[in-house]
Amino acid sequence: MAARRPMTVSPLWLQCSVLTLIFGFAILGYAAVRTFRESAPVPSRIVDEAGRTLFDREEIVQGQEHFLTFGLMQYGTVYGHGAYLGPDFTADYLHREAVFMKGLYGGDDAAGTRVRRELQANRHDPGTGTLVWTTGQVAAFEANLNYLRDTFLDREASGVGLKPHLIADPEESRKVAGFIAWTAWTAAARRPDKAYSYTNNWPPDELVGNTLTGEAIMWSAMSLVALMGGIGIVLGVYGRFGGTIGWHETEERRIRFLPPSEVGLTPAQRVTGWFFLVVAALFVLQNLVGGATVHYMVEASGFFGIDLPRILPYNLSRTWHLQMAIFFVATAYLAAGIFLAPLIAGREPRGQGWLAAILLGALAVVVFGSLGGELLSIHGYLSRAIRPIFGAQGMEYIDLGRFWMILLIVGMLLWVVIIYRGLRPRLATESRGNLPWLFLYSSLSIPAFYAVGLLARTKGTFAMADFWRFWVVHLWVEDFLELFTTMLVANIFVLLGIVSERFATRLIYFDVILYSVGGVVGTMHHSYFSGGPAIQMALGAFFSAAEVIPLTLLTVEAWSFLQLGTRQQVGGAKEFPHRWAVLFLVSVGFWNFLGAGVFGFLINLPVVSYYEIGTLLTSNHGHAAFMGVYGMLALALLCFCTRYLARPEDWNDRLIGYAFWAINLGLMLMILGHLFPLGVLQLGDVVTNGYWHARSEWFRNYPWLSWARLPGDVIFMSGSFVILWHSVIVVIRPRLGPVPRDADGSSLQAALFTEVLPSGSTAGA
Q1: What is the pTM of this model?
Q2: In the chain, domain spans
Q3: Residue 561, exposed/middle/buried by CB under 10 A (0-12, 13-18, 19+)?
Q4: Coil, helix or strand for 25?
Q5: Three-state DSSP class for 130?
Q6: Which residues contact 101 (CB under 8 A, 6 or more apart)?
Q7: Omega cis (within 30) before 203
């Protein structure tokens, strides 16, 4: 057996990366234990002052499951998490409860003092699990129950964006109201021996007596200190070692690229054309559904007079909009991994094409099965027992039923097998710390961290379910997909000869270290006010500030990154064949800094998040970060791979260029013309009139800002249709040609460049 090639970089890079990962997950594990022990209790039963049971723990938990599986988290929010058309049910219930109780007790200042005292008093007995409600709380529950039924749950017409009679069963609607009432209780009742509630005094409400805590102010200040100190340290390291860890080589190199039509294609690579067609189709459908979703902000009763909520209510359109975004990005990643594996290994084993086709079929089953299950669940066609399994779990980002979720994980594991089979000849000769192994590790992290979402259960403790859900939202999406992004870009540039393997490996290790320090523990910034302990605020605020540091570094390196793909060729070679793929990658860097960095940090400080969570500033961050980073990367991968799959006469740089500018300009218009200004106005309304008001009334005052988004949406969609047209052409008119094979029948892959010369050299020198 041949000896393995030693590490191309110092082993210290690997050791530091492993240590920082252990450090990050050790702290996250500590946070999990604290959350489990100190999350808001769910009483065994809630009783009135006479001892009569109103509802018990099982009914509250069932109400939570109904709330999720009927898609109410994709309509409004609880604890600030969810969608944006409906109210925050926690804050709205709590405010209405306080108003009702004050009126019941006389309406004067003394009544207001009594209301605050009763709502803040914690009458939960940990020994018996019994929670006693006052007469005012019991009466307020019945009033809120009728309001919820008439306005949202069992409404006769579809004027609020929900289908009529969403939850017609009176027992089920009472359980949903019981769950919402419990969340409101946790938001007002003070923790034992603490001066703040289980939600750290969220939501802000004068009637309840909820105000910003000292911890929120202190940790906001500490996170700013961490940010400034961290940026100073990293930029100092970059200034000292920038030649070895940035997006540039110390020695400029000039390349003659092999024309894409001369690069042989393996069977599995040819199958990826169909993957990218799915990517483009899902991208277009996601945009169309998104257009219907945002239209509800100006016409909640339908679509230009059509009673759309009866067919496609807001909670379903928003579920599909988010779900298809995840699907089209994930499909692009799967396809890119399959396409790059033989380029990295230099060969492809037999049967890879068939395995790729099987994976494509399985992916289609998951996509259509899960979308159909969500439709049946939200429309009430599935029984309570099977809704969370084959219908919808209803938790944002993991809405699909558990069966489809498990099937998706199995599909991603099959993808890892395909990657491993493709890389195995190269892996056998490489140190386990070199680039091919890092590619395999990052591929394995994709199914591994998505699978953690299985720990989030619709009938589990809400704080713990939210904790595990954010492993998917944050660790999977914001960290490990981010790392895989760097991995793909680095491998593409190595394959093109733009940077050396040693250089790319150092860059990947550096990213692992930076994201491990901030990104892993920074997961906690999502859970400040979800009923977990205050330690979440401390850890989340302090460490999430460090997430901005690698994004700052990427911005410093943006010009060097851009030069990599546009460097002049030697010997009169044709124009660089991947101009638009590289420009999409450049846009990834831009949106990473703006969307994840600027807009993300804007809402991460506890002192801001206390007022901002669940406003359109969250959606602003989500659109700029998810579409701007992962969506643009998916399109970059599509352009890179289909450049080799398309016939030369079918490749149209002008059309691809139009798509690039239309998609980026359209996204910018969505952000600056709608989401950001409306989010700022909404934040101001929270501070002025209270959180409940900003979530229930705000959008009715600014319909013109929602209409102002239309030009951006149209421009963006026009670019997506160009991408779809291009992908259809690639599939129906694929580039043919022989695939070179060796004696064993394995496909051999040519290099993507023909020469690498020092700067200043000439052809033939």
Answers
A1: 0.91
A2: 45-211, 579-734
A3: buried
A4: helix
A5: strand
A6: 111, 114, 115, 118, 119, 136, 137, 139, 140
A7: yes
pLDDT digits (tens, 9 = 90+) for 333-355: 999 999 999 888 888 888 999 99
The phi and psi torsions of 297 (rounded to 5 degrees) equal: -70, -25
**Of 407-421, 465-479, 647-661, 735-749, which gets the smallest average pLDDT?**
735-749
Distance between CA atoms of 289 and 305, rounded to whole angstroms?
Answer: 17
Query: Do residues 574 and 192 make contact, with C-beta atoms less than 8 angstroms apart?
Result: no
User: What are the beta bridge partners of residue 45?
Assistant: 56, 130
Sign, CA dihedral 741-746-747-748, equals negative
CATH of 45-211, one of 1.20.120, 1.10.8, 2.60.120, 1.10.760: 1.10.760
DSSP calls for 545-606: GGGHHHHHHHHHTHHHHHHHHHPPPSTTPPPPTTHHHHHHHHHHHHHIIIIIIIHHHHHHSH
Q: What is the DSSP letter of 626?
A: I
The sign one gets for the Cα dihedral 334, 650, 585, 507 is positive
Residue corresponding to tokens 């219908």: 391
Sequential DSSP letters for 679-732: HHHHHHHHHHH-HHHHHHTGGGG-HHHHHTTHHHHHHHHHHHHHHHHHHHHHHH
**Element housing 591 (H / E):** helix 579-591
User: What are the tens digits of pLDDT across the range 154-204?
Assistant: 988 878 889 999 999 999 999 999 999 999 999 999 999 889 999 999 999
Please list the residues that pair with 75 across neighbouring strands: none
Which residues lie below 8 Å from residue 460, measured CB to CB, with a gap of 6+? Answer: none
Residues in the chain: 765
- How far apart CA 97 and CA 137 sit, in angstroms, is 7
Assign 3-state DSSP to the chain and report helix, strand, coil percentages, each to 5. 70, 5, 25
CA atoms of 436 and 430, how far apart (whole Å): 8
**Interatomic CA distance for residues 376 and 731, integer angstroms:** 32
- For residue 293, which of 161, 406, 195, 384 has the smallest C-alpha distance? 161
The number of beta carbons lying within 10 Å of the beta carbon of residue 399 is 30
Tell me, what amino acid is at 356?
A: A
Q: Say how far apart CA 387 and CA 174 lie, in whole Å.
A: 19
**Count of Cβ atoms closer than 10 Å to residue 569 Cβ:** 16
714-588-521 Cα angle (round to 5): 120
Instruction: Find the distance separating the first CA and the last CA of the chain, reported in whole Å.
Output: 38
Structure tokens, 119: 């709502």
For the beta carbon of residue 168, count every other beta carbon within 10 angstroms: 12
In the numeric block, which tokens belong to residue 631?
């969506």
Kindly tell me the burial class for residue 313, based on how many C-beta atoms sit within 10 Å of its own C-beta (0-12, 13-18, 19 or more): buried
